[in-house]
Amino acid sequence: MTDPTISHYHQHATHYQAQYDSVAAQDVHATWAPLLKSLTAGLALDIGAGSARDALWLTQQGWQVTAVEPAQNLRQLGQIKTGSKVAWSDAQLPTLEGLKRPEQGYDLILLSAVWMHLKPEQRPAAFHRLCDYLSAKGMLIITLRFGPSDPQRPMYSVSTEELETLAQQRALSTQDLSEALTNDCLQRHDVHWKTLCLRPKHGHSV
């Protein structure tokens, strides 16, 4: 994320915690949640974890979750909520500096409502770093936000084509889980979403 964005989330942490927690994780992630049944619960990485809503949801399904949140106040609120159930890190994309990679990598990486905050020139490095942290049979979930930007937390245009191109460079398959743009769970009529699932192609290492 860009520094102005991190500062904004830090300064308005209680607002965003309440906003995120006003909708259930299983509703926000309804497009890809069924895919969890195809995975054995292992190590999960939630990048841009915010209020810890999604991290807690994953722990309830048996996952061992590391939550990454660079906005200090938001991270501290999340830590209070999760206690020892979730490990926390203040790392940030594109480098994730300071976040230790498990030897086998993460079996699930979730990037929910984060990609649009990365400047286009940061995205190749960020994507390759995500791949470095993904296990050989892992699943990377990225949600794409389509809608107006917010001057206080800048957002940049996204596309499935951009991610497909990056995925090809690392021999990842890309599955668009949204036949059409899905509506926003917060009832913002000018905001819509797409969810992509990326996985290493059979016989290829990430």
From TrEMBL:
Swiss-Prot/TrEMBL keywords: Methyltransferase, Transferase
Family annotation (Gene3D superfamilies): Vaccinia Virus protein VP39 (3.40.50.150)
Spell out the coiled coil positions from the record.
none
* InterPro entries on file: SAM-dependent_MTases_sf
A Pfam family that this protein carries is Methyltransf_23
UniProt xrefs under CDD domains: AdoMet_MTases
Q: Which processes are annotated in GO (biological process)?
A: methylation
Question: Does the keyword field hold Oxidoreductase?
Answer: no
Q: Which domain of life is it from?
A: Bacteria
Task: Tell me one GO molecular function of this protein.
Answer: methyltransferase activity
Report what the protein is called: Class I SAM-dependent methyltransferase
This chain's source organism reads Amphritea opalescens
Print the organism lineage. Answer: Bacteria, Pseudomonadati, Pseudomonadota, Gammaproteobacteria, Oceanospirillales
